[in-house]
Design a protein that fits this description.
Elements (H helix, E strand, L loop, with lengths): L1 E7 H19 L2 H4 L5 H18 L12 E5 L5 E5 L1 H7 L1 E11 L2 E10 L3
Length: about 120
Amino acid sequence: MIGIDLIKLDRMKRFLERFGDRGLHKFLSGNEIIFVKNYRNAAGFWAAKEACAKALGCGIGAECGFHDIILTKTPKGAPLIDLSPEVCKRFGITDLSVSITHDGEYAIAVVALEKSSK
């Protein structure tokens, strides 16, 4: 399954101006916030989480919340994605991949996931 999301950078900039760190905590854990250097990074993480929820086919909600989707980075700065154990089990997820890019005024993310054949 594949999910994609696009967010205008100005939308995240206004969100952070209005809500600040409290806004970041709505969709990121403390460990994820460490990787956010500016609103561009935050927008990429938002897009990645939305893309993941779309790949799962459920959207962000009761079956999978923002904090069930976990983003980190490799030592070279490439994004990594994982899911909470509960969500992995619920959806039978065996593997996930994410790509995040920024172009002009947009952040775009694509998530690919594999489900068990059970």
